[in-house]
Amino acid sequence: MKFKRFLAFGIPLIITFLLFFPYKHVIAFSFEDQGKLVAYLPLESEKNFRIKYTHSIHLSDVLESYRFSDKQIIQTEFSYHDFAVGMPSNAEGKEVFEEKDGTYFIKNMKRNFTYIDLRVGQVRANHRLVYDEKTYTLADFIKPGTWVRISLESISLWEQLKGVKISG
In this structure, is residue 50 part of a structural domain? Predict the structure, then answer.
């Protein structure tokens, strides 16, 4: 009798737990501010990632560097090639501004975010995620023009099945 009760209640409970328990740490791309998972990149031991894109006016690459800690995303560096519309002209506070071989850097940044909102470029931006020495073109996994919210999350097996895994 106890075994039948276990089969009737225990097994479904275990399966439900395994399906819905958030255990996998990922860089999550959610649809707008609705929380619906669009795509995700499983995290390994590497604590840094970068977002690279082509500036729409200068047509040169911009590189934003981040590291993560708990649920926080910390911007650590910003590099670009042209002083023009939308680009900073100096560092703030304890940040350091440098120029090296025609590239401008703002280093020693400690700007904290719980998420980053991004509209995946449709024409020139060619947004790329650089993680663990691999580059992933976001438009390969997320429809261009889509507004996504980038955050660090733990997701369940069910959410993994619903979202698009970013892989190379």
Answer: yes
